[in-house]
Specification:
Elements (H helix, E strand, L loop, with lengths): L10 H11 L16 H5 L28 E17 L3 E5 L5 E10 L11 E13 L2 E13 L4 E19 L24 E2 L4 E2 L1 E2 L2 E2 L2 H5 L13 E22 L2 E8 L3 E2 L2 E8 L1 H15 L15 E9 L5 E10 L4 E11 H4 L2 E7 L4 H7 L4 E6 L5 E11 L4 E10 L18 E10 L3 E16 L13 E16 L1
Antiparallel strand pairs: 1-2, 1-3, 1-24, 3-4, 4-5, 5-6, 6-11, 7-8, 9-10, 11-12, 11-13, 11-14, 12-16, 14-15, 15-18, 16-17, 17-20, 18-19, 20-21, 21-22, 22-23, 23-24
Length: 489
């Protein structure tokens, strides 16, 4: 029913529309789909022990110690997430971007001429990497990495990263969370807090001696059919933060490589920007529903008559972080050009995705402010993700001519609780199969990889985050294509 979709018209609906649209889309390798370049992507995402490309410094900065100077790598990924869902409220639908989204990466490696007399032992590099992407959220990581080769077998590394966060939302439609489907005691309910006043005098409307709120007024209607896009949102903003990486790379013998890396919690400051909303059609739907059900004319209670639903807000989003993680990798050269590798990873999502907070301030539409009880609004969306554990295995074969073939598999526990997953969300992919190929020459290397997530299903009983998700059953399909090119000078 149109009214059931519009009980949050105004700042309330905008806050929750942004909440549902802005979210990172991680998978079984932390905040990347599986890997950051095509070499690692082809072998199941394993990159903590193998420094076979400049972008490997993002996985383990100590790997710089084994890299030659004058190396530059560019990688481009194409990622597609689609979530198919069925809910009692919305029926069947599809969420996620549904299109191929680009994921660019760049890195380079340098060797200083002399550092305290040990120039040949030092390496440093710089790169720009995708940190998390999905919905309307992109967190990009860029900064330098440093490595010191203690001996021919041991290298230590440090990476410093600046995190730039971009939120961009364009959405049509109302948000059902907190509407008439959520009970009065439901903590998910974000109801309009304004008091109904007769205009232009501003006298509160009373029924049986009690002041009537807009939430109560809206609940009087029984609906009037679908109303089309009730709320149009256009929100953009930026945030800033940082994190650090530590790494160790060890070669116990010529055929074996061991890598250990640690990334601290990536602190992302609040994303701040401007949001514009158009609820004009929502006002029209409410006018029709209320008049049909109770012969009530909504414009009687709005200071500007409910004719123009356009408004501007300052908005702020906080609560998203890059998770703390620790990785142990192992690789072993085998006879006849084969190499086997494996990796174990711990990702502390429990500290990175606890709660998302969305604030809207300074709304300039008097009618929306009247409905919501003021120009400001705050929505809190519980996430309560769990820590994730990932295991991966890969196999490579390289011919004498430089052709390389790869295959791998990555499996991770699901960090997303069924009772907080949002409708159309992702993040619960667990199994990824990968295939890859490459060609090496003395001065350049090109690689290609395909990552596919086995279809995963998640079912929700009663949601803690959104009434829309009550009884939802969702299936996630995910694919990533990676291309890497490295040039050695």
């Amino acid at each position: 029913m149109a009214l059931a979709r519009l009980a949050l018209v105004g700042a309330s609906a905008l806050g929750l529309t942004v909440a549902l649209a802005v979210r990172p889309s991680p998978a079984s390798n932390g905040s990347q789909a599986v890997a950051i370049n095509a070499r690692a992507g082809g072998r199941g995402g394993i990159d903590a022990a193998l420094g076979d490309g400049a972008t490997a410094q993002e996985a383990n900065p100590a790997l710089l110690g084994w890299m030659g100077p004058g190396s530059t790598e560019v990688a481009v990924g194409l990622r597609r997430d689609v979530t198919y869902y069925q809910t009692p409220r919305a029926g069947y639908g599809r969420g996620g971007p549904g299109r191929w989204n680009p994921i660019p990466t760049f890195a380079t490696v340098f060797e200083p001429e002399s550092v305290y007399g040990h120039g040949d032992r030092w390496r440093w590099g710089f790169g720009a990497y995708p940190g998390a992407a999905g919905g309307g959220l992109l967190i990009a990581s860029l900064g330098p990495s440093f490595a010191y080769r203690v001996s021919e077998r041991l290298s230590l590394g440090l990476g410093l990263r600046y995190l730039a966060t971009r939120a961009e939302v364009e959405a049509d439609g109302g948000v059902a969370t907190g509407s008439s489907g959520a009970g009065a005691g439901d903590p998910r309910a974000q109801r309009p807090g304004g008091i109904v006043r007769i205009q232009p005098s501003g006298t509160p409307l009373r029924i049986n001696g009690e002041t009537l709120t807009f939430a109560e007024l809206f609940s009087l209607a029984s609906g009037g059919g679908p109303g089309g896009p009730a709320l149009k949102v256009d929100a953009q903003g930026w945030g800033h933060g940082g994190t650090a990486l530590l790494g160790l790379a060890w070669r116990p013998d010529r055929a074996t490589r061991v890598g250990l890396s640690y990334r601290d919690l990536g602190l992302v400051g609040p994303v701040r920007g401007e949001a514009r909303v158009d609820a004009t059609e929502g006002f029209a739907n409410l006018q029709r529903d209320l008049q049909a059900a109770q012969s009530v004319v909504l414009s009687t209670f709005l200071p500007a008559g409910g004719v123009d639903g356009r408004a501007r807000y300052d908005f702020e989003v906080e609560g998203f972080r890059i998770p703390r993680q620790a990785v142990l990798g192992l690789a072993r050269d085998l006879p006849r050009g084969f190499r086997a590798s494996g990796e174990a990873k711990w990702i502390q999502w429990s500290q990175a995705m606890r709660e998302a907070v969305f604030r809207l301030e300074g709304g300039d539409n008097p009618d929306l402010n009247e409905i919501n009880g003021g120009p400001d609004f705050t929505a809190r969306i519980p996430l309560h993700w769990r820590d994730q554990y990932v295991a991966a295995a890969g196999l490579e074969w390289e011919s004498a001519s430089g052709l390389v073939l790869r295959g791998g598999h990555s499996v991770g526990t699901n960090p997303v609780p069924a009772n907080t997953v949002l409708v159309g969300g992702s993040g619960f992919a667990q199994h990824h199969g990968t295939l890859g190929a490459g060609y090496r020459r003395e001065a350049w290397v090109v690689d290609l990889a395909w990552e596919h997530a086995w279809q995963e299903t998640i079912s929700t009983g009663t949601s803690r985050s959104s009434a829309d998700a009550d009884g939802a059953r969702q299936k996630l399909v995910q694919d990533v294509i990676l291309v890497s090119y490295e040039r050695r000078f």
